[in-house]
Amino acid sequence: MRRIQRAALPKVAQNYLSKRQVAANDKHKNGVLNIERDWKSARQTKPLKAVVATLQTMMGPRQRCMYCLDSHGADIEHFRPKAVYPKRMYEWPNLLLCCTECGRFKGNKFPMSGKQALLIDPTREDPWKYLDFDPVTGNISARFDLQLNDWSAKGMATVDVLKLDRREALSAGYLKTLRHLSDIVERALLGGAVAIAVPVLMTELKNVDDHGLLGWCLSDRGQTIYPFNDLHQRHPGVWRQCRRTI
Ligand SMILES: [Zn+2]
Predict the structure, then answer these.
(1) Who contacts 109 (Cβ-Cβ below 8 Å, separation ≥6)?
(2) Tens of pLDDT along 109-140?
(3) Residue 113: what are its φ and ψ, rounded to 5°?
């Protein structure tokens, strides 16, 4: 997972969503809202195609799923499920791009702790605040929060809902990306600090970072494995500059 910047919608699409939400709210108030039918009829319109196109643009040329970053983002996902939160079904900040598998695992699940959502929204926050990565198995797990002296509840719920710790193809994809990132840093280290041009290095790293692992590799946890530990110890200045431009 990685932090994703939400783009602005084209005005026509935004206006359409707003109108559909007002109409859906009215129907809901009168007890006549058929959520699935309403969404299906909207989904086939041009403005919703613009919504999909905007979500895909946010994910770059590979158009990956915003949750797992491993598979193609096939459809619009309601972060807060429309079946439970119909008042959010046409709200742009509630819409994500999601693969078939993540969509199936998530379904209408939306764990809460009091008023706090326990699922990570990658368009609002940095997932690595709550998640950890195992460089041996390639699995994603909850992060151990040293301040709380406990595992991140948000991380645990997200891993559990999306089954991020038991998807073989996903783990293999993350490990492959880790290898690519490691190769680039290893090559840069061979040249020494003087030869490391941070903007060039970061561009190279970002180009291969299909799974958003750079945020983990350049974190305190990434510092524990080679070659990121070498980069941190031998070239702390370069490390800091890289972190600033993630
Ligand atoms: Zn996915």
Answers:
(1) 81, 119, 161
(2) 999 999 999 999 999 999 999 999 999 999 99
(3) -125, 100
